[in-house]
Amino acid sequence: MKIAIIGATGEVGRMMITCLEESGVQLSLLDLYASKRSMGTVLYYNDRPLKVQELTIDSLLKHYDYVFFSAGAGVAKTFAPIAVEASEIVIDNSSGFRREELIPLVVPEVNGDLLMGYSGIVANPNCSTIQIMLPLAVLDKLFDLKKLVLSTYQSVSGSGHQGITTLQKQRKGSLDKGIYPQTIDLNVIPQIGAFLDSGYCQEEEKMHFESRKILRKDDLMVSATTVRVPVIYGHSVSIYAEFAGEVDLAEAEKALTNSPDLVYYPNTYVTPLDLGNSDDSHTCRLRLGTDNKSLTFWNVGHNVRIGAATNAVRIFLQHAKYAGKL
Fold first, then answer.
1. For residue range 77-94, what is the model confidence (pLDDT) as tens digits?
2. Which of 83, 115, 116, 155 could covalently link to 319 via disulfide, CB atoms 3.0 to 4.6 Å apart?
3. 245 shares its domain with 138
């Protein structure tokens, strides 16, 4: 298996390397690429040193079985179409292709069937969207999901390494707002991305669109409020969901308990500090909402793992199994 990672020195790129190691898949080649300023950086795969190469057009003219992109939408838009001409599958972590009608937006446990027989670009969804799709897909199958109201509590690592350093500097007394519109230390910021004409910000609109596309429910009503909080790793989401049918709490709990890559807590709750290196979506505080056709619950996930690198590697693993490569 020949694999390339674009943006290998970034927060998510490094985690992709870790997740590939943890998958146990034997690779005949792993090439790491980044910008010119990161060229020569040495990273390790299964204790084997790999030197990061500069990303150029020529880099992607060679054949790879899978190419992972974690370098932003601009780089993806420029280089992914080149990579997909020479290689079979490109898995892009940016927002660059998520709205493209013919490009699958995949959470393998929910709509992984889209990968069967597919070649081309696959879009990795937004971090906070991925983690909530696992429980919502389960509940949708049971009760037919109609409406979502979401409030997120998203960690600074969701902004990349600059988000982490901004928070750490402020905790040491810096007054520099860094990459955020307001101070993040000892504060919360109800804005992630630029505000749009709708009054929603970019992160909120991502959750609206992506929830509908992944669940294949164009008429799903969604309203999100996305909030940045002074947490290093781990996104939390408060979810209110309405359904066409009456809900059965016992049935919901049983289904959530038995679903893959999802951990359900019937008698306690989970916080970002509890996550460690978990690749699962953690769901708790399940209760009736405003009536017997609605539910409210709390969901937490490691945004760099399940919210990015882990889901990308799961896309690779699912596709490779369909293609008979594993």
1. 999 999 999 999 999 999
2. 115
3. yes
pLDDT, tens digit, 9 for 90 and up, residues 43-61:
999 999 999 999 999 999 9
Identify each DSSP E strand in the chain by its residue range. 2-6, 29-34, 42-45, 48-51, 53-54, 66-69, 89-92, 120-123, 145-153, 221-225, 235-243, 262-265, 281-288, 294-301
Residues serving a catalytic function are 127, 235
Q: pTM to 2 decimals?
A: 0.97
Are 245 and 172 contained in the same domain? yes
Cα(212)–Cα(148) distance, integer angstroms: 10
Name the residue range of residue 234's domain.
128-302
Taking only the tens place, the pLDDT of each residue in 236-283 is 999 999 999 999 999 999 999 999 999 999 999 999 999 999 999 999
Side chain identity, residue 230: P
